[in-house]
Amino acid sequence: MLERSLYPRMAAALLALLGIIDSAYLSISRLLPSSALVCVAGDGCQTVQQSIWSLLPPGSGIPVAYIGLGGYTLLFGVSMAALQTDRIGRLALPELLVLLASGGLLFSIYLTIVQIAVIGSLCFWCVLSALTQPGIWIATIIDWRAWRGQERSLATDSSTRRSSRNARPPESPGMT
User: Fold this and answer.
1) What is the DSSP string of the chain?
2) Domains of the chain
3) Which of 121, 147, 149, 161 could form a disulfide linkage to 47, CB 3.0–4.6 angstroms apart?
4) Is the pTM of this model over 0.70?
């Protein structure tokens, strides 16, 4: 049986680390409003960060940057754990990673639509995050599919061994 590659989990962890850095920068600029948010391309960062949509629920909730920081940190931690083991108790880490990455991808799509359709401005750092999420999702899907194949192979091997142990030996022609 082939070993499952570590590369997809490593890619997910590295992309999640990039997301942590990105959302930490946005979180710090949120905590220190006197510091200027550097927008590498365009001038939409301040517009997006100061809009009511930078909070969840809009206008009076938790800053989206904090939610991103928490989500990326969780993805990073689970990705790092998945480099060492496939399960923690009964919890399958490849399945958890796909679930977390899918949630992050959907949230990122929602935020991108809000930036374009509602705010009418794009933030470079938000776009960077939006581009990071599909990479994490793809890496976790690749790993999950390989893990699922490995699990099926192990299940087939163990059932084959069990059935061969329970099989009766062939009878000799002279025995009755």
Assistant:
1) -PPPPSHHHHHHHHHHHHHHHHHHHHHHHHH-TTSPPP-SSSSHHHHHHTSGGGEESTTTSEEHHHHHHHHHHHHHHHHHHHTT-SEETTEEHHHHHHHHHHHHHHHHHHHHHIIIIII----HHHHHHHHHHHHHHHHHHHHHHHHHHHHHHHHHHHHHHHHHHHSPPPPPTT--
2) 7-160 (1.20.1440.130)
3) 121
4) yes
